[in-house]
What we know:
The structure holds two protein chains of two kinds.
Chain A: H1 2-16, E1 17-18, E2 21-23, H2 25-28, H3 30-41, E3 46-50, E4 59-65, E5 68-74, E6 80-84, E7 99-101, E8 106-107, E9 114-115, E10 121-123, H4 127-130, E11 150-154, E12 157-161, H5 169-173, H6 178-185, E13 192-194, E14 199-203, H7 207-214, H8 220-223, H9 225-242, H10 247-257, E15 267-270, E16 276-279, H11 289-302, H12 304-312, E17 317-320, E18 324-327, E19 332-340, E20 343-353, H13 358-372, H14 379-393, E21 400-402, E22 411-413, E23 416-418, H15 428-442
Antiparallel strand pairs in A: 1-2, 2-21, 3-12, 4-5, 4-7, 5-6, 8-9, 9-10, 11-12, 13-20, 14-20, 15-16, 15-23, 16-17, 17-18, 18-19, 19-20, 22-23
Helix pairs in contact in A: 1-3, 3-15, 9-10, 10-13, 11-12
Chain B: H1 3-20, H2 24-28, E1 31-40, E2 53-57, H3 59-70, E3 81-92, E4 101-113, E5 116-131, E6 134-144, E7 151-152
Parallel strand pairs in B: 1-6
Antiparallel strand pairs in B: 1-2, 3-4, 4-5, 5-6
Amino acid sequence: MLQERVPDLSRRLSDYVEPDRVRREVYTDPAVFELEMQRIHERVWIYCGHESQVPKAGDYYTLQIGRQPMLMVRGADGAVNVLYNRCPHRGTLMVGDRYGSSGEFFRCSYHAWTFHHDGRLRNIPMMESGYAGTPYGREHPDCSMKRAARVENYRGFVFASLAAEGPSLRDFLGEAIVAFDDMCDRAPQGEVEIVPNCFRVIQKSNWKIFLENQLDALHPSVTHQSTGRAAHEVEKEIEKQTGKAPLSYHMLSAFATVTIDKWDNFQTLNYPHGHCVLTGYMGLRPKDPDTLAYEKTLADAYGQKRMEEILAVNIHHVLIYPGLSVQSPLQQLRAVRPLGVDRTLTEIWHFRLKGAPEAIYRRSLAYYNLVNSPATLVNADDLENFWKCHQGLASQGGDWVSFARHFGRDLERNGVVETAPNCGTSEAPMRNQMKAWAQYMRTQ
Amino acid sequence: MTDTQHEVEQFLYRQSELLDTRQWQAWIDLFADDGVYWMPADPAHKHWDGVPSIFAEDKSLMAVRMKRVLHPDAWSQRPLWGTNHVVSNIVLLEGSPKDEIVVRSRFHMMELRRDDVRHFAGSYKHHLKKIGGDYRIKLQRVDMTNAQAAYDYVLQVWV
């Protein structure tokens, strides 16, 4: 069925995406979703996890790349491998738990085939007698767990690509690599470690609707007004009583105090492959004792000049298309795992800056809890909009999704599309994502 | 049945009734001024401060949540929505700190939102203190059995 539909689809793809609008089928057609998984998610570099999630040999963490169940595992040699979570014998999942330790080797729960952590066959019960006279055995490739075609690690962040050919991770990330540099550079020791907790939330919408929202500077003051106003009222009350409210209140109240007309002051930088940076100072340098103590540890580690450079990096969000949204100044990220054409899982993680004072961890933890937990005061209204979008796109009340805001005003330099001054609410990030989408989808 | 057991049971029933009838301010008023509502992300966590939590709210944050839910533009709370709590298995724990009562109970909560029904269940641990003749919550710990499962949509109000 799919085989018959795909060629037909390929012909139509060029009609689906125009520079400032896309057809609704891009979000709602299950055949488009299948092709996306083949041509995008199962080819490009996908974020697997941070190496500190699997600190000891044998530790594993499972994840989905496109439609493929995968696992990330630490080998005895210290390397982090990414394997298909599948026994080559009868296809059984090698591990059924979301994460854990496999001990010294993987052992299939069905027939006890065992494997090294790099996927190589270790043993089959009674292998000599059972497979005498057949080509099967340790040297036969069909007897080992299949590895992801390519795995790369950048500053502890592990990515895999299921395609043998393609740009290196660095070339793929391009300027968006700043997401990881900004996060790690803010640590006095130059690296981060995982906070061992993953918040997982399912959205009843297509995965692209989430990504488009991440850098949509027009929506916050509309979507999140109720939380912004509520936080602003309580913030004022606390200030009246104690003089100073915690920074987390300010982060929430900004949704109301930064009114809709002010979001144009933000800027987006749109890069090849669909990646994008939303700039916007998040007020993370108040002159309180905690921040000053942190700045001192950074200055001691890097010197005053470098410390100023690190803290001056102006990032609100970095989007790494097609599956990662990074909030580097607050050390958190959301990995997007499409489950179906209308269902998307986000896995939300927080990181600790190695060598930074506890207070700095707690400040971003407050944001992680308030904004990113399953009791979120913020994302709930986004999820409501995503669901409504997906439902509406299934309608025949219109065929197109519009990305025309500030279209034609973008400034392009060396392949980077910058929104013009006072055009921060431009829908340039959506246009940029769909441009990358169309390129990927047209590549056989 | 001791008087204390009976009083505590009535207190817990009243608390769940306030949730199901959306009397948010009266629900918040059950907490002591320094009271905390905590739903750990991980059942192994011992203290609410400094760890990832699904809820970790003092009365100021509870006020933010209440004001947000009551705001006419809280889009996600506009649809038909309601909950039904059942609280049971109420046990006073031995060895509670002086002038505090620690009580463990189990709950089941059914939620309707639009046409979707969800179920959440788990245990409460209330640290109660008599203040001015009434019980007030110093700490309510909520360990949800499905705390670590993926959330189909999110939680908007305390469980």
